[in-house]
Specification:
about 270 residues; eight-stranded parallel β-sheet; 11 helices; 8 strands; about 45% helix; Glycosyl transferase family 29 (Putative sialyltransferase)
Length: about 270
Amino acid sequence: MTREAFVRLLRQTGRTLDIIQRWMRFKITASPLNPWRIQSLNASAFAGKKVIIIGPAQTVVEDLENVVVDGYDVIVRLNNGIALARKNPSILGSRTDVLFHNLVEHGERSAGAIPASLLREHGVRFLVFPHWGFKGSKSRLYKKREELQDFQGPALMVPSTRFCENVRRELGGFQPTVGASAILFFLSAQCKEVAIHGFTFFQTPYLVGYNDAVATADEARAWAAASYVHDPVREKKVIGRYISAAEQRGVRVALGANVRRFLSDVR
C-alpha cells in the first residue's frame, strides 16, 4: 500500500467512525429511556379526528373556497403559515393547533420567527420539528425547547424516529420538506378525515407574505433545490401512495382542487 493510499484509508476510517459515533449519540438522545429526550408526536392523539393541513401555495385561497377551516378538529400549518392566517382568518382559519416548522427563524433561509407569545396567541398546542435524525445540528432544536419552557410556550415535539427513517427510505435518502412531513404524518394516523389544501409542490409561487424571497414558480423550485436535500418529484409519488393507503384504511382524504391537479400526474 502506498503512503497516499494509507492516508486516504485513515481519513475514510475517521469519517466512518465519526458517523457511527454521531448515530450512537442520537440513538441514546432519542431513546425512550432518556428522561430529557424531545417528546414524540403521538399519531394516536389524532385518531378519529378531522384534520386540515394548510399549505402556503398561491392557490390556497382558491382551494379553500366553500371550506370552513375552523370547523376542523385539528388545523395544521407550516413554517410561516401563522403570518398568512393572521392576515386572512376568515378564509385561512383563526387558530393553529399544530405547527410544523424547521426552526430556522432568522437569516436568508428563515422560515419565519415563532416566539412563544405568537404561538400562544394563535392557540398552538404542538410545535413540531420534522427533521429528526442523527444527521444535522440539533442546537436550534434544544435552544427552542429552552425558550418555550422559559416563556410558557407550547410543547416542542418531533415525529418518531421510526416514522422519519421510513420516510427518508421511501424518498431514496432525501429529507422530506416540512410540508411533506406534515402530510405524510397525518396520512399515517388513523384520522377520520385528512384535508390537504394549498400545495402545488413548488410548481407555483407562495401566497404573498409567506416567503418574500420567492415570487415566481421558478424561484419556488430553486428555493427547494438550494438545500440539496429535498426531491419534490419523489415526494409527490410518495404522497400519492400514502393517500391511496389511507383511503384503503377508511380515512377520508379531501384534496383541494389544485392539490389534486398537481398530484394527478403521479397517482
